Fold this protein.
Amino acid sequence: MSEAPHPTPPARAPEALGPAAEIVSAGNEVLSGDVLDTNSNWLCRRITGLGGHVRRTMMLRDEVDTIAQELRAAHARRPALIFTIGGLGPTTDDLTLAAVARAFGRPLELHREAERMVRERYEEFAARELVPFAGMNPARLKMARLPQGSAPLLNRIGGAPGVLLEVDGVAIVSLPGVPPELQYIVDNSCTELFARLFGISHYEERTLIVDTQDESAIAHVLAAVEARHPRVYIKSRAQRIGSERVNRITCSARGDDAAAVEALLTPVLGELTTGIAAEGYSVRPADDED
């Protein structure tokens, strides 16, 4: 007798994943292996925590045409948000804003508010003896030339402001590549944008640990639960915890408030626990690891 086919999970409901983001990271130093790209990982975690999801990341060389082409392609996929990382500084190889300008047909213009931000930062740097002089020069003015229609995003850590440009309902946020600067701008200068894009919905993750490394042994259980609960995202990942090789199953959902998310996650966790235990494998909440 042939086995019944495993249920096929339906396509994820949009509310299960939240608004989409894409990341375009530029930097020859990253692709040469000289610098590790921790920024994309940090942004992925940040957007997930806000209730969105990162749909795609790209890592490119510092080439205007290449970056512009990828930005146009990303925009055509209509995410809520596109991040660019790197290339906002004063040197000739900092080309990201030129690429943004070319991608969307917006000439670079000296932005007075951005100029004020850059000037104030270098005055502070000079007062702290971090730079040799406080005035503006062509290299520093370069950081204040933004694509037409953009707004600068305050950066209190470094010299270059972040940049926000909105094109046909898609927000393009350009961030510096220095991690503390990027994180400051995201956490302090993007709050209004994020509230508009992600709302005030509640997001939560719960994790189960299964004592088997073989994902295929429990895949049918996950598929059946996914089919019954399309608003919950279920991800299985084999990993080592100490001397054990286990599967870590993460369930995530978003809703209007904590109670709504709890109502989504509780039955899923119960069904997964019951179904996996019925297959003969030990399963426990990740919190029990402590």
Summary: Residues 202-289 form a domain with the Alpha-Beta Plaits fold (CATH 3.30.70.1130). The chain has eleven helices and twelve strands. The first helix runs from residue 14 to 17.
